[in-house]
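User: tokens in, sequence out, please.
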């Protein structure tokens, strides 16, 4: 299957793969990831949907051709351009981590008209914490810690990100980092192959965003899938998002991390397809 390409309205080339038949399903991956994150679900999703999986700008090993940074507003605009380019209406959109932030930004900027269902995977509407907000990263990751993290990314991108993942709430992730397991070595090699600058700029935008006001405006059927042992967020964050979106349905996958869909693949497919069919 070859990559399809369309040009966003600023001239940037957006790469994606399209497969399957049926109503459109758009899948938005997380920060530093690619369309390949969705490979385990393709057979099931393609049987019922026309599936669109992009590499967000600055991701997937595709060099940027414009000077536009991959900010949350710019990626939301890219999503709008994608819907326009392929003439999509009533799309189901699922966003993991950064993908969820992109989706919330899209709703703020463009509204719900082109969409039918939303799936949010393990994300907080505001990453940074303060005295009045404890549902962000770790529950205590404020702007000072974020500035130190960005500085660490500038010095050693791969190691800074691995440490952010390792020294959160998930004990297995911490042990894997400290033991330098084969999986950790592989993850480090992958991250070291990335071009850091666009990804650091992207993080700066994501960590400055606040979508708490967007949640209450959502009227579409919304499925929430959160990890019970997420590296970054407590179950209180999941319940906050559920309680802030009218009628949202929350599934917490016990004892799995920030990528609950990848750990509980069959359950995730069943939950998404049942949700779309029933909602």
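Assistant: Sequence out:
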């Amino acid at each position: 299957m070859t990559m399809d390409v369309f040009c966003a309205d600023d001239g940037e080339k957006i790469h994606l793969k399209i497969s399957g038949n049926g109503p459109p399903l758009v899948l938005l991956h997380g920060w530093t990831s690619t369309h390949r994150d969705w490979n385990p679900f393709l057979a099931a999703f393609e049987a019922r949907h026309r599936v669109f999986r992009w590499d967000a700008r600055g991701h997937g090993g595709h060099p940027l051709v414009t000077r536009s940074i991959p900010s949350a507003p710019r990626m939301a605009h890219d999503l709008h351009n994608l819907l326009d380019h392929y003439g999509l209406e009533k799309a189901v959109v699922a966003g993991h981590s950064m993908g969820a932030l992109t989706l919330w930004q899209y709703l703020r900027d463009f509204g719900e008209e082109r969409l039918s269902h939303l799936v949010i995977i393990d994300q907080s509407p505001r990453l940074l914490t303060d005295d009045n907000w404890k549902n962000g990263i770790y529950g205590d990751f404020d702007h000072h810690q974020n500035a130190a993290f960005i500085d660490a990314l500038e010095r050693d991108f791969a190691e800074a990100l691995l440490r952010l993942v390792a020294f959160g709430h998930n004990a297995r992730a911490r042990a894997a980092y400290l033991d330098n397991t084969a999986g950790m070595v592989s993850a480090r090699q992958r991250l070291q192959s990335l071009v850091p600058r666009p990804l650091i700029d992207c993080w700066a935008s994501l960590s400055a965003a606040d979508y708490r006001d967007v949640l209450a405006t959502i009227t579409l059927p919304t499925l929430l899938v959160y990890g019970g042992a997420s590296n970054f967020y407590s179950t209180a964050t999941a319940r906050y998002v559920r309680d802030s979106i009218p009628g949202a349905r929350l599934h917490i996958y016990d004892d799995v991390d920030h990528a609950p869909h990848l750990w509980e693949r069959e359950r995730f497919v069943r939950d998404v397809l049942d949700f779309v069919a029933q909602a």
